[in-house]
Amino acid sequence: MLSNPRICLLLAACLPCLGQTPDWATRPPRTVPPHVFEKLSAPDRELFTKLMRAGLEAAWVATTEEGYPQCFINELTALHPGQRMVGRARTIRYLPNRKDLREKLYSAGPQLNYRASEETQPGDILVYDAGGETHATATGVMTTTRMIMRGGAGVVVDGCMRDIPDLAATPAGVFVKCGHASTVSPILMSVDYQVPVRIAGVTVVPGDYLIGERHGILVVPASVVDKVLAKALAHDLQEQFQRDQLFHGGSLYGLYPTLNEENQRKFEEFKKRQR
Prior knowledge:
By secondary structure, the chain is of the alpha/beta class. Helix content is 37%, strand content 21%.
């Protein structure tokens, strides 16, 4: 039995060399939340599962390669920083309040945060363009609860939400600029629904796919999502192999970012074992 603490520490530091992967290198599998998954169609279940699996950085590279470099939102705060949010954008746009226009718009139908929640489809993420306003809120826990019960996946607000403690207890992904106790009026009014919006310098179009992590949200146009996921998942598999080699004492040279001939051969064997 080893009793020298220095030797024990040295062995602990060298565990990867002994064929063991350190705890910090493993990540629990990400799954679509049950309240969303059970309501999705079969094709969407497959798509959303891939969105959950794809590495955010690899998906960003693939999205930019498809011609969309302004695709990452990193100016909002995640209420569930350990939880990935994936879904399809349903958009709402706000403007500073103006009495005559507000009366005209609101007399024609319900406020758009109510309408968006009532019309939420499974997997939707409600995306509120509040222009970065920090002295009024775009929506709160009541409308979000309705969205969740219809299978909604999350809420993204370039501005504030009310009921932050209650929202933090829900299963929905929530990204906001900040919290506030106010209502929408008298500062803001909802004016447009299911139109392109601007969120922290990024254009979001209805139907775009969003992948949110603690450090930001990737916006993937629907027209390229299949290509992006295919590229990202292939890249992730290679990086999984590269990290595995590093954990077992491999050198970066000839391994990362480009595989040399020997490591390419090892990678092909690795892929066969994964299948």
